[in-house]
Amino acid sequence: MNRRNSAAEDRRVIAATTIGTAIEWYDFFLYAAVAGLVFNQVMFGQLDAGAATIVSFLSVGLSFLFRPLGAVLAGHFSDRLGRRIILMVTLIAMGGATTAIGLLPTYDSIGLAAPLLLVFFRIIQGISAGGEWGSAVLLAVEHAPVEKRGLFGAGPQAGAPAGLLLSSGMLALMNVIAPGDAFIEWGWRVPFLLSIVLMFVGWWIRRGVEESPVFEEMTGMAHSPLRTLLRDHWRKVLIAALVFAGNGTVGYMVAGGYIQSYASTQLGMSRGTVLWAVTGAAVAWLVSTVFAGALSDRIGRRKTYLGGFVFQFLAAAALFPLVDMRETGWLWAAMLLLGVALGLTYGQQAAMYAELFPTPVRGSGTSLTYAIGAILGGAFAPTIAAALVQSTGSTYSVTVYLCVATTIGFLAALSLRDRTGVPLTAN
After folding, report:
1. pLDDT at residue 67, as a whole number
2. What is the recorded membrane topology of this protein (predicted)?
3. Which residue ranges form the domains of the chain, and what is each CATH number?
């Protein structure tokens, strides 16, 4: 392949992994945001307000328990069959489940079947999310020149804030089109139904991408990648999972919908104001994610992580004190500060994970490590935050919780060797 064709293929890979991952995260984050704004009323409204909010956020966290299943399946088959085919399967599964949620009747219409079906579709989302990430980042990183792995890997990483930006923006728009009770009655459904259109867009973009060259040249493939991974690399899996947990615990205050629910319900701030501030946070997260990926190519993954966690600690400490001021300007300041911090502990993750594991188990290693980190970090962070506020009457305990999680992420990153630039076909 000549240089021009290689550059063109690089652009296709970055577009396919970034846009496709953004669509998947749009679906995933959309549920989390609506859980605290709508589902606690229309799906779990038979409970009192506090309990309904906690149970609604539990349904968000429940899907994380099924991410390892998706990670194991996708990791195994991506190591056996390739990265590309897994990305097509996860995209269709996620889009189908999200569209189905948009059509789901409420508790008042079909009773207990409504929350049960809602949880079922959320589980499908969790399995899909568990399988999507590892295959997407490996396709990007394994196509990348060695000196640009962080930047290429930041593409699918940027899909997460892009998905948050798209989902928050759509909800903010629908809050204008269908204000007040109309949003609760039907407005929230439109962004879910849009998923079927986005699913076909993602499928069209991904169908022309070539398989990872590292996978095609792979020799000595493990007969059972998961067994080999857990036998030979379990320490790296656990430590790298804690690195992501340090990011995810803080990130899911926004991505998991807790700030949206807390600021609009308990502080009485305008729902539209909160959604637009979260949209701003997504933009900041997106930009700093790409910056962190590129920076890690210059100074290494480990140094980028350590500096990022220091910044995240400050942002986590300031988050609720600023939000609790109930002023739009301070809410925006808190959201933008948090968005920048999240990107600085997220953009380099794809390249770091890919460089941690040898080629025959790389798909299983990245997928499973990410899924475990999501459970340890983001899975029940909104539920824990809601329970802490309800039991203490203050957000101070949540601030301590976020700062402790950030410190754990810092120590985990500190304990890992920096493998920036290691050959992907020989490690």
Report:
1. 78
2. Multi-pass membrane protein
3. 3-210+223-415 (1.20.1250.20)
